[in-house]
Design brief:
2 copies of one chain form a homodimer. Chain A is mainly alpha-helical. The first copy, chain A, has one domain: Arc Repressor Mutant, subunit A, CATH 1.10.10.10. The longest helix of chain A has 25 residues. The N and C termini of chain A lie far apart (about 55 Å). At the A-B interface, helix 1, helix 2, helix 3 and helix 7 of A face helix 1, helix 2, helix 3 and helix 7 of B. Chain A binds a DNA duplex (20 and 20 nucleotides) through helix 4 and helix 5. Chains A, B: InterPro entries: ArsR-like_HTH, HTH_HxlR, WH-like_DNA-bd_sf, WH_DNA-bd_sf. Chains A, B: This is HTH-type transcriptional activator HxlR. Chains A, B: GO terms for molecular function: DNA binding.
DNA sequence: CGGGATCCGTTTCGATACTG
DNA sequence: CAGTATCGAAACGGATCCCG
C-alpha cells in the first residue's frame, strides 16, 4: 500500500477511521475513477481520461497508481505495440462502491441546498425575479 | 459558504458529487470534530481540543471556521471573561452523521484488512512467529 | 479562554515537453 | 497508446508568538 496510507493505518488510533477513508478515496478524480470503473467494469487509460475531464496524464497516472497501491484497483498491462493497459476494480474497490455512492448522494444533496442558497442571494434570471 | 466550496458547487458537473462531500468533510480533524459533536451535542473550543489530539489552536480554529462557513456546525460566542465559545451541529451537520458513520465503518474495515496484510509481511512477535 | 498574526516545510495539482 | 521527467504555483498543516 502507499507509504502515506501505511503510516496512517499504523499510527492513527481508531478514533479517526473516517480519515482513513478520506486518505484513501480523497485524491483528485479518485471517486470519479472508482465510479466509472464500477459502471464500466474495465477501462483503458485513454478511456478513463476521456470520461473524466481530460486531466493531465501525469495526474491521472498518479491517482491510478495510488489506488492500485492501496489495493482498490488492478492494472493489467498488455505488452504490445501500441501499448494497452486495463484498469478494473479489485474486491476492495468493489467493496467501496456503497461508500462512493453515499458520498455521491450526500454531495449532490449538499450541492443542491447550497445552490438554492446562492440563487436566493443572487437570482439567476428565473421566473418572478425582478429584472 | 467557503469560497472553495462555492467554486466547487458552482463549477463542477454532477458527475463528481462525491468530491463535493470530500471537499466539505475532508480537512484535518473534520470527521472527528463532527463525530464528537454528534456524540456530545455541544462542546467548547478547549473541550474539542482535548478530545482530539490537541491540534494547534490555529489549525483547530480554521477547521471549525470552515465547517461553520460550509454550514455544518454553529458557533455561539458568550461575551464574557474568560470567553466561552460553544460549537454544535447544524441541521446540515446532523444530516452528515450517516455519511460520517459510513466513512468510519469503511475506514475501520480497510485498516483492519491492511493491518493483517502488514502483519503477515512483518509479524509482530505474536503466537507461533519465529523469534 | 479562545483565538489572531506570521512564518515555514510539505504535499499536491497542473502545464509542458519528451518517450518506448 | 500510455505513460515519464521536470518545473512551477498553490493549498495545507503545523509551530511559535502575541492578545483581548
Amino acid at each position: 500500500m502507499r507509504e502515506k496510507t501505511e503510516r496512517i493505518v499504523r499510527e492513527w488510533g481508531d478514533a479517526c477511521d473516517a480519515e482513513i477513508s478520506i486518505a484513501v478515496l480523497g485524491g483528485a478524480w479518485k471517486p470519479s475513477i472508482l465510479s466509472l470503473l464500477g459502471e464500466h467494469e474495465v477501462l483503458r487509460f485513454g478511456e478513463l481520461s476521456r470520461l473524466l475531464d481530460e486531466p493531465t496524464a501525469r495526474v491521472l497516472t498518479r491517482q491510478l497508481r495510488e489506488l492500485e497501491d492501496d489495493g482498490l484497483i488492478t492494472r493489467e498491462v498488455y505488452r504490445q505495440v501500441p501499448p494497452k493497459v486495463e484498469y478494473r476494480l479489485s474486491d476492495l474497490g468493489l467493496g467501496s462502491m456503497p461508500l462512493i455512492d453515499a458520498l455521491t448522494a450526500w454531495g449532490g444533496q449538499y450541492a443542491a441546498t447550497q445552490r438554492s442558497a446562492l440563487d436566493a442571494a443572487a437570482p439567476p434570471a428565473s421566473h418572478k425575479t425582478p429584472a
